[in-house]
Structure formats: C-alpha cells, structure tokens
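Entry for the shared binder. Reason: the reviewer on the internal report wants the predicted structure included alongside the sequence.
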Amino acid sequence: MYRPKVNVVDDIAVLHGIMRERSFATIAAIVKGRLHFAYAPMAIDTEPGARGALRFHLARGNPIAELDDAEVRLGFLGPDAYVSPDWYETKGSVPTWNYIAVEGAGRLHRLDESGLRRLLVDLSSTQEEKLRPKIPWTLDKIGEERITALLRGIRGFTVALETLEGKFKLSQDKAPGNIAGVIAGLEARGDAGSLAVAGAMKEDWRPAVRASTGSA
C-alpha cells in the first residue's frame, strides 16, 4: 500500500479497532498464475504474534478456497468521503478523498472441522452482540444436520499476519483552518460516511499525539 509518511499509522491496537469495526475484508491471492479476489467477514484474533491473526471462510467453489500454505493479502476499508476544495480556507485547491484503509499479509492455512465450526460461532456471536437487546441467534438453532451440510460447502482459513499497516488520509497535510473547514463541511453533509470521516479527523488516534498528551 502506498503510504506517504504523513498518512502512516502502525499502532496495532488502532488498526485492530478499525478491522473489528469494518470486519468485511477483501482477500487477494494468486491462484494458478492469476490474481483473484474474494470477500468475507473476518474474525480478528490478537494472538498469535505481534500483529495477530485473521480467520474467515469461503465457499468451496471459490478459487482461493483451493489454496493452503499460500500467501494472501487482506484489505479493510474504513470510512471514506469526498472532500470539496470549497471547504478550505486556502483557495486554488482541488477535490480529494479522505479515507482509512488497513492492509495485512500472511500465509493462509486451512482450518480443520472443529476450527471451522468455532469460526462460525465466533463470527455470528460477534455480530449478534451488536443487536442486543435482541436475543442472540446461535448456531444450534438450525440443528446438527443443517450444520453438517453447511460445513461441507465451505472451507475455513487462518492467516497469522506477517505485516499489518494502516493508511489514514485525513487531511493531515493541510493547515489547521483547512482541516476545520473539511470537518465542518463533512458534518454539514451529514451522511454516515462523511460523519465517520469527520469524527476520525477529530480523534486522538496518532501514537505520537497520545504519548505527548499522556492519554491512553
């Protein structure tokens, strides 16, 4: 991922937070000499290793599902929004796009049946918790025969992350007045993506800032 220095964020806790919030990821891998993409929700594990690991499943018919012990790259796109140059105090600027992206890489390994079953439980329970006070849906509600059929149609994988990097393009290279103008413009626009980007622009997510202010 191309990352100008001003946009670099490598704080693992911050990146894991983005990945959990936007857990539907893009998977890229080479299969028989061709680049393939797949898309799947991820279970994010803080272990093993310094960068953690990801677990996901794919339909058996997906070309990437044929792989084992193969390199893959995984991308997570956080909030994004168009930025109008009319929001800047400084004139003569051009439009741009603010966004947050996280990218990781590692070697993909297949899960056994028990690991795949655990993955299905973890994926659903994480999302069901967000729907409370609704009583959470659980896998046992569909019965063992249905579960067995489901497991036959998918393959589960784990990827211990060897690299993990973030790009936060949030107007860090702009003057304070221009940054304030972008935040105000995004908040006035009012859609979910614009509000999320405006909020990220105001957050104390930079490690250097947190260290200097003493915040956690």
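Summary line for the report: The chain has a mean pLDDT of 93.
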